[in-house]
Amino acid sequence: MQLIQCPPLPSDTAHAAKLAFEKEHPYLQIGNQLNSLLIDLQLSKPILDDEILFASFWPIAIMTILQFRENLGDQRADAAIRTRVDLKYALHLPLNFPGFAPLALCQFRQRLANNQDAQFVFLELINRLKELIGNDQQQPEDTNQLLITICNLNRLETMFESMSHAIEALATNYPEWLVGVAQPHWRKRYNDKPCFQPFRGSLSITDELLESIGEDGQHLLSEIDNSGISDIEYLSDIRSLRQEWQSQFDKEHSNLRLRGLICYPRNECLKTNQESIYACSTRNKEVNAILKRKQA
User: Fold this and answer.
1) Where do the structural domains in the chain lie, given as residue ranges?
2) Which of 141, 157, 189, 254 is surrounded by the most beta carbons within 10 Å?
3) In the chain, which ranges are E strands?
4) Tens digit of each residue's pLDDT (9 = 90 or more) over 241-250
5) Are 30 and 128 a contacting pair, CB within 8 Å?
């Protein structure tokens, strides 16, 4: 057996957090009790044999529970840990911490799902956090619920971004054609929302929204197939949309069916640097103008 260890709270993070938040803030409570939360969680040999899983219990295991609590997929979880002092305080990370690679969050869940010893330790950590900060927000009942929920959030984010990028590409290259095939709700769904912030609200709507976006993708891809414009398929965003749609859905007669649970964040998508945020804002203005013509 081996105990989980974490470093002391960095002084810069402690100073910044205590200026910005009340001491009752739940994430400050986690940071203050982090060693107590982890001190006697013992990692058995099957966990130690998996180097990635072993290295992830601090801080990725706790971050995984918090991203479930806040309804964050991997890309926004990465953005949150890079920009939020309260999360850095909770995890004992310095202010200049560069963030988690979304793939690292996904890899931890994949290994957790296939390691019963790790699931036992992880569930104990979930229960300890519940006792510390209560149930004021969404809390997982067990490990499986957490894994499925975050995985579905990632599927939703990926499909949303694929559809958004496809519409943007068509608005740039085939605006008149897009006016003729766009659905009335597309402007509100894909272009009135802030970049990288598409999903808010209850986790219970995730599957319903994913299926609805899948229907949007099916409609757009069908119109492309029937357009007679062969060059559309050469657009990389259209190829990406088709690949994502085929990965996520099966078509049974006229009905869509979600494929089995898949979780695969894509490193090339959802970049949150200032340049891409500016570019996204500019593209949204252009797309809005085109989709408004559809509604006129």
Assistant:
1) 2-140, 155-295
2) 157
3) 2-3, 42-43, 249-252, 255-258
4) 999 999 888 8
5) no
